[in-house]
Amino acid sequence: MDITIAPLDPADPAAVDQAYAIKAAAVHAPDMPPASRQWFDTLINFNRRDERIEFALAYLDGTPVGLIKSEYPLLDNLDNAGLDIQVLPEYRRRGVGRALYAYGVQRARDEGRSRVMGHSADTMPGGVARDPAPTAFAQAMGAKSALVDVRRRLDIDTVDQAALDTLLADSWHRASGYDLRTWTGDVPDEYIDDIAYLDGRLITDAPMGDLAWEAEQVDAARIREFEAFRRAQGTRGYHAVARHLDSGRIAAWTHITRSATPDWHAFQQITIVDPDHRGHRLGLIVKIENLRLALRHEPALRSIDTWNADSNRHMIAINEAVGYRAVDIWQNWQQSI
């Protein structure tokens, strides 16, 4: 068997088609939808100031069977490179994954990186079985699990809206001195600096285990660039914030995104409360209010996925109060190179 690896040329439509077919066929978990073609094309063609993304195809005897995505942070975390490897199931155990990993490690070294990172989905106790191959592969390559996340899913059809009404009313009783603001799409100019501050706090505030990821330097320009990237991908965003009335500052923020396709699935992204404003149920308030905002705009929405470190008991409690239920375990791998 002859394994060759070639960088993906965005100007080669046949190669891009082949790469997307592999990406769509080799999803990390079978209940998650494949990435949309618009999302994939944007990753290839959009130039970002904060991150560079590269793809390469692996060919087995001339047939495209594997894909690697390499991510290089450009503004911070300059020692790190993210690797995401996919091999078509029918072509596994033939050395393709190892060849892609060796390629990714060498490219990371060429870029001056000293650490590679990736992730895999695992079966949780009593949960639906997940393919054990990705985790076994990471272990075989010598990577170590640095942080354990748990994915939880909200099944919209099972949401108890009356219970949410009660939770929301009780929470607002504890949140005097704050009001709610919501929007769709880009962050309003009046809130952009506060949102950049909260976004930059995420790595500091969230449990990170042994994952060697430093706090990101987030400013308004970085937020605006990422919004342009999301728009190019066809992603819709829904936001809710709690505003402190005395100062006018944003004290809590949450964000849901829905890709261009499919219309039934979305991701619960960041939820964060400024440490100076904790203890007022603001996280629960913005999460419930934003869920309802998204549902008003997305009537076909049926499932929302979110991830939390398994040690993040406070945010897990909020998610489970809303109705999220654990689905599987996700290992965050890293290896010094």
Could you outline the blueprint of secondary structure elements for this entry?
Elements: E1 3-7, H1 13-25, H2 37-45, E2 51-60, E3 63-73, E4 80-87, H3 96-110, E5 115-122, H4 133-140, E6 144-155, H5 161-173, E7 178-184, H6 192-205, H7 220-233, E8 236-244, E9 250-258, E10 265-273, H8 282-297, E11 303-309, H9 313-322, E12 325-336
Helix pairs in contact: 2-7, 5-8, 8-9
Mind explaining what this structure looks like?
The chain is of the alpha+beta class. The chain folds into 2 domains: 3-113, Gcn5-related N-acetyltransferase (GNAT) (Aminopeptidase, 3-Layer(aba) Sandwich); 153-336, Gcn5-related N-acetyltransferase (GNAT) (Aminopeptidase). It is 33% helix and 32% strand. The protein has 9 helices and 12 strands. A 12-stranded mixed beta sheet has the order 1-2-3-4-5-12-6-11-10-9-8-7, with helices on both faces. Strand 10 (265-273), helix 8 (282-297) and strand 11 form a beta-alpha-beta unit. Helix 2 crosses helix 7, helix 5 packs across helix 8 and helix 8 (282-297) crosses helix 9.
Largest sheet composition:
12 strands, mixed
Strand order of the largest sheet: 1-2-3-4-5-12-6-11-10-9-8-7
Shape: globular
Name of the CATH class of the largest domain: Alpha Beta
Fraction of residues in helix: 25-40%
CATH architecture of the largest domain: 3-Layer(aba) Sandwich
The percentage of residues in β strands lies in 25-35%
Number of domains: 2
